[in-house]
From TrEMBL, chain A:
Pfam families: Glyco_hydro_20, Glycohydro_20b2. It is an enzyme of class 3 (hydrolase). Disulfide bonds join 60-103, 276-327, 502-519. There are 3 beta-hexosaminidase isozymes: isozyme A (hexosaminidase A) is a heterodimer composed of one subunit alpha and one subunit beta (chain A and B); isozyme B (hexosaminidase B) is a homodimer of two beta subunits (two chains A and B); isozyme S (hexosaminidase S) is a homodimer of two alpha subunits. The composition of the dimer (isozyme A versus isozyme S) has a significant effect on the substrate specificity of the alpha subunit active site. PANTHER family: BETA-HEXOSAMINIDASE, BETA-HEXOSAMINIDASE SUBUNIT ALPHA. Hydrolyzes the non-reducing end N-acetyl-D-hexosamine and/or sulfated N-acetyl-D-hexosamine of glycoconjugates, such as the oligosaccharide moieties from proteins and neutral glycolipids, or from certain mucopolysaccharides. The isozyme S is as active as the isozyme A on the anionic bis-sulfated glycans, the chondroitin-6-sulfate trisaccharide (C6S-3), and the dermatan sulfate pentasaccharide, and the sulfated glycosphingolipid SM2. The isozyme B does not hydrolyze each of these substrates, however hydrolyzes efficiently neutral oligosaccharide. The active site is at residue 322. InterPro entries: Beta_hexosaminidase_sua/sub (IPR025705), GH (IPR017853), Glyco_hydro_20_cat (IPR015883), Hex-like_dom2 (IPR029018), HEX_eukaryotic_N (IPR029019). This is Beta-hexosaminidase.
Automatic annotation (TrEMBL), chain B:
The keyword Cell wall biogenesis/degradation does not apply. Belongs to the glycosyl hydrolase 20 family. The active site is at residue 317. PANTHER family: BETA-HEXOSAMINIDASE, BETA-HEXOSAMINIDASE SUBUNIT BETA. Pfam families: Glyco_hydro_20, Glycohydro_20b2. This is Beta-hexosaminidase. Its EC number is 3.2.1.52. GO terms for molecular function: beta-N-acetylhexosaminidase activity. Residues 216-478 form the Glycoside hydrolase family 20 catalytic domain. The gene is HEXB. The keyword Disulfide bond applies. It is found in: Cytoplasmic vesicle, Secretory vesicle, Cortical granule; Lysosome. One of its GO terms (biological process) is lipid metabolic process. There are 3 forms of beta-hexosaminidase: hexosaminidase A is a heterodimer composed of one subunit alpha and one subunit beta (chain A and B); hexosaminidase B is a homodimer of two beta subunits (two chains A and B); hexosaminidase S is a homodimer of two alpha subunits. The composition of the dimer (isozyme A versus isozyme S) has a significant effect on the substrate specificity of the alpha subunit active site.
Length: 526, 520
């Protein structure tokens, strides 16, 4: 029957009972005394407050809302009448001190996320350079709070100095192959914050559907969405996502992938896609964006003007992957254009021609860009600050990382982190064991690796299975990108991740199990 | 049961048998759906959404309208069942809600422009003088039905209530909503019966505890402290019965019993390290009389709690290491003349358990090892074939020896992989093993297994459905129903229907449903 016998089973089973204060992802440095003092946290009296001299005070939405959120998360199961005990030495206040002012901006690639946390009997202090670091520190603080058998909340004396290893720690969701309701995206942002992930890569449109409601080109979603009324993201949905993410210190990078992966754009933008030919006649099907007409570039300019104003992040993801040349090759006008331009038979030149013009358009809008690796592989001239997104797995991705950084470009790694590709067993381990900097190159090259992204492509994923497929597996990627390179012990990670998964259940997240066992708070949210 | 933490594998024989752009580096799906299949066709024909496909179906293009405020499901003239049949009354209400429940149809009724008449009733006629309203479904239950849909009434004829339940499901699948919100059904006639009598799902509630609610959801569609109380068990059995589903409990011995040890002293074999007990325990200790006293009492309780004629006794994956280390076990081996053949000791144990269970007038199911190790089995024993390696050969051996077999080997749904793996389950032909006609008849069905190493309430439902539906059709429909394109289309629709009934079934491929899953 159950033919799986895992040798380490007995050991792994113990893991359900981890230490109360295991942290995920592991901080860079944590010091606790050998016998740490345990300080009670009385739910009725506990509060967060701004330290005297902090550059940020009350009225800062990022912190005010985070205080509320983490209060609710920490004491979610607290019964009201619990403050009867005479709290003599209790921890009633976490003082938050931020050095740099700034509350209304958006997080960016350069944002400072470092923080220090000092928990002692006398005081609890959280220091951060910027509010974004304070958010990371609040998350760590919430994970430090335990609850004993009598239901008493407590925190142990400890000291944490923490900062991210990589500044770009992302998660990609694909809302074109299946539509994801707004609530599913917002919950994902919550769980990303629990994992200290800081970039939501929104692969918002693709071949199957165009759910983004454009105010410049409303026909795109009217004609291209699965259902123009129900399966769309309105302007207010998009604003909600951006603000919800900002309050959690998460950047939103929108991807509008061209010239391939655009079939759903066709019905709402007549003349945009290349008509494919069968012999001498149009076959009725369409290929990539038609790169030979000026009207195409007028359209692209207007669309990206809108996108640049809607999405505040400096970067836009321009895609540029998997362009199929079959349709271009069949079209006589394209053939004539190729001849005129002197491209010969080399269609990558035509692709580069398109991409080049697109990059110029986006640059002129004052935005930076990210592209999938093909754009680099095909030798397109890109700006020096371009980020090359490495995703292919057919060649060792380490080689590509070496090539990209050798050319002086910044690299972002996703190749080993396609979480949509499920398999039997504890596949989080493979994701965890990746070492992003393990490629041949100078330390200068290594510095060009800005991080990575876990990808959840949507072929087989919709709202029915998104959350358990994503969590806690994406947590493995999150720790790899946040914690020190030396943090790679699988046994230790198993114990902490199993514990963190139980914490996710307690917070109402439908995170699937790592292996056999149970949690005190099982999932009950049907 | 009162026996907390026992391995309870619930075997459920289901009543409700119940499109490409490829991302970076995605292999093309198999089968490759055409672009148009991303969308649910609005000019659908009735067969497009039936799952599993009935044995025989004829439909007309003539459409009848159903008005929810007038339409009724009733007992027909001459039926041996009437309003006193709670099982059918319940089913009538349930299916009415599936068909009309989710729409706000209480608005003024308008005739649909595409309807050519109205269907006002579905009359259900049970022929047998023993309709089965208060009984439990069993292996020989008659699940056949005959459904005729013509204006003004549809007739559903079945010998027993079990066939009526299957027919109600089919009827509900024939009803569809048009673009204007009208409910329509095509005039049609269906003769239907299952190909195999045993069509099961196995859930594992030991490796992860499954809340009662998620078990019940998956039977059609709470409990604290991780224990199933007698009330819980009774609830599962009755919920299943009302849907024509048998509940077969598995209490697997002598291996897979680690969790029994804490609650029952001396039941498990103490393992030795050299001359001393190591502190760990192995399988059930087969050499003590007290073991058999305990088992007699336990199985007496199980026999009375679970009404089905069968109990699954497990008997798989017994590791001999611990027995080999124990001096008392070795002494016993010598005394019995077993030599060093521990399979004989295993058979000795199993034999005694089989005798105990027989004495309670229960039949038993066992995993294939029990047969492989040549334990003496009652002729009506059901042998469950689970080892993936050459299962056709095993089916051949089991049936050649005259035993009844059920197949699970190719249907371990806990073994997930990337892509459309339902096609793999769908393509299995259970009777594709060497053997005579008589042998083929001994294969009574199969089971989709969802073992619990990596499954709990968080991911159970999307992992089970619609993948288990592929097994459902293989076991219900005719052998020649094998077209993957056609199955893809129908299963996609069936999955959307499950969503509209509140089951979070995962997608087969790219696309959408008119009514997506509700976010919790």
């Amino acid at each position: 029957m159950a033919a799986v016998a895992i040798a380490a089973r007995a050991l792994l089973l113990l893991a359900a009972v981890g230490p109360a204060a295991a942290l995920w992802p592991q901080p860079q440095l944590q010091r606790s005394p050998p016998a740490p003092a345990r300080c009670p946290l009385p739910p009725a009296r506990f509060h967060f407050a701004h330290a005297a001299g902090s550059a940020v005070g009350p009225g800062c939405a990022v912190l005010d809302e985070a205080f509320q959120r983490y209060r609710a998360l920490i004491f979610s199961a607290a019964r009201p009448a619990e403050n009867k005990q005479p709290w003599r030495t209790s921890c009633t206040e976490l003082l938050v001190s931020v050095t740099t002012p700034g509350c209304n901006g958006f997080p960016s690639l350069d944002s400072k996320e470092s923080y220090k946390l000092n928990i002692s009997r006398d005081s609890m202090l959280l220091y951060a350079d910027a509010v974004w670091g304070a958010l990371r520190g609040l998350e760590a603080f919430s994970q430090l709070v335990g609850r004993d058998e009598n239901g008493m909340y407590y925190i142990n004396e400890t000291e944490i100095v923490d900062f991210p290893r990589f500044p770009h720690r992302g998660l990609l969701l694909d809302t074109s192959r299946h539509y994801l309701p707004l609530k599913a995206i917002l919950e994902t942002l919550d769980v990303m914050a629990y994992n200290k992930l800081n970039v939501f890569h929104w692969h918002i449109v693709d071949d199957p559907s165009f759910p983004y409601e454009s105010f410049t080109f409303p026909e795109l979603s009217k004609q291209g969405a699965f259902n123009a009324m129900t399966h769309v993201y309105t302007a207010s949905d998009v604003q909600t996502v951006i603000e919800y993410a900002r309050l959690r210190g998460i950047r939103v990078i929108a991807e509008f992938d061209t010239p391939g992966h655009t079939l759903s754009w066709g019905p709402g933008a007549p003349g945009l896609l290349t008509p494919c030919y069968l012999g001498k006649d149009p076959s009725g099907t369409y290929g990539p964006i038609n790169p030979i007409f000026n009207t195409t570039y007028q359209f692209v300019t207007s669309l990206f003007q809108e996108i640049s104003s809607v999405f505040p992040d400096h970067f836009i993801h321009l895609g540029g992957d998997e362009v199929d040349f079959t349709c271009w090759k069949s079209n006589p006008e394209i053939l004539a254009f190729m001849k005129k331009m002197g491209f010969g038979e080399d269609y990558t030149k035509l692709e580069s021609y398109y991409i080049q013009r697109l990059l110029d358009i986006v640059s002129s809008l004052g935005k930076g860009y990210m592209v999938w690796q093909e754009v680099f592989d095909n030798g397109v001239k890109v700006r020096p600050d371009t980020i090359i997104h490495v995703w292919k797995n057919n060649l060792p991705y380490a080689e590509e990382m070496a090539n990209v950084t050798k050319s002086g470009y910044r690299a972002l790694l996703s190749a080993p982190w396609y979480l949509n590709r499920i398999s039997y067993g504890q596949d989080w381990m493979a994701a965890y064991q990746v070492e992003p900097l393990k490629f041949k190159g100078s330390s200068k090259q290594k510095d060009l690796v800005i991080g990575g992204e876990a990808c959840m492509w949507g072929e087989y994923v919709d709202v029915t299975n998104l959350t358990p497929r994503l969590w806690p597996r994406a947590g493995a990627v999150a720790e790899r990108l946040w914690s020190n390179a030396t943090v790679r012990n699988l046994q230790d990670a198993y114990v902490r991740l199993a514990d963190f998964r139980c914490e996710l259940l307690r917070r109402g997240v439908q995170a699937e199990p790592l292996f056999i066992g149970y949690c005190d708070h099982e999932f009950g949210g049907f | 049961m009162g026996v907390a933490g026992l391995l309870v594998g619930l075997l459920l024989v289901p009543a409700v048998l119940l499109g490409g752009s490829f991302g970076r580096g995605e292999p093309p799906p198999d089968p490759q759906p055409a672009l148009s299949e991303w969308e649910t066709a609005s000019d659908a024909v009735p067969e497009d959404s039936l799952w599993p496909l009935p044995q025989s179906i004829r439909t007309s293009r003539l459409r009848l309208q159903l008005a929810p405020e007038r339409f009724q499901v009733v007992h027909g003239a001459g039926s041996s069942a009437g309003p006193a049949c709670g099982l059918l009354q319940d089913a009538f209400r349930r299916y009415f809600e599936y068909m009309f429940g989710r729409s706000r149809w209480r608005k003024p009724y308008r005739a649909s422009p595409s309807a050519q008449g109205e269907l006002s009733q579905l009359q259900v006629v049970i022929a047998s003088s023993e309709p089965g309203c208060d009984s439990f479904p069993h292996l020989a239950s008659n699940e056949a039905y005959h459904l005729t849909v013509t204006e003004p009434v549809a007739i559903l004829k079945a010998d027993e209530v079990w066939g009526a339940l299957r027919g109600l499901e089919t009827f509900s699948q024939l009803v569809h909503e048009d673009d204007y919100g009208s409910f329509l059904i095509n005039e049609s006639e269906i003769y239907d019966f299952p190909r195999f009598a045993h069509r099961g799902i196995l859930l594992d509630t030991s490796r992860h505890y499954l809340p009662l609610k998620s078990i019940l959801t998956n039977l059609g569609a709470y409990s604290y402290n991780h224990v199933y109380t007698p009330t819980d068990v009774h609830l599962v059995i009755e919920y299943a019965r009302l849907r024509g589903i048998r509940v077969i409990p598995e209490f697997d011995t002598p291996g897979h019993t680690q969790s029994w040890g804490k609650g029952q002293k001396d039941l498990l074999t103490p393992c030795y390290s050299g001359e001393r007990p190591s502190g760990s325990f192995g399988p059930v200790n087969p050499i003590l009389n007290s073991t058999y006293d305990f088992m007699a009492t336990l199985f007496k309780e199980i026999s009375s709690v679970f009404p089905d004629a069968y109990i699954h006794l497990g008997g798989d994956e017994v590791s001999f290491d611990c027995w080999k280390s124990n001096p008392e076990v070795k002494e016993f081996m010598k005394k019995q003349g077993f030599g060093t053949d521990y399979a004989k000791l295993e058979s000795y144990y199993i034999q005694k358990i089989l005798d105990i269970v027989s004495s309670y007038n229960k039949g038993y199911m066992v995993w294939q090892e029990v047969f492989d190790n040549k334990a003496e089995l009652k002729p009506d024993t059901v042998v469950e074939v689970w080892m993936a390696n050459n299962y056709a050969h095993e089916l051949s051996s089991v049936t050649k020896a005259g035993f009844t077999a059920i197949l699970a080997a190719p249907w371990y749904l806990d073994y997930i992989s990337y892509g459309q793996d339902w096609t793999k389950y769908y393509r299995v032909e259970p009777l594709n093993f060497p053997g005579s006609e008589k042998q083929k008849k001994l294969l009574i069905g199969g089971e989709a297994c969802l073992w619990g190493e990596y499954v709990d309430a968080t991911n159970l439902t999307p992992r089970l459905w619609p993948r288990a539906s592929a097994v459902g059709e293989r076991l219900w429909s005719s052998r020649n129903v094998t077209n993957l394109q056609d199955a893809y289309k129908r299963l996609t629709n069936h999955r959307c229907r499950m969503l509209s009934r509140g089951i979070a079934a995962e997608p087969l491929f790219v696309g959408y449903c008119p009514h997506e899953a509700r976010w919790r």
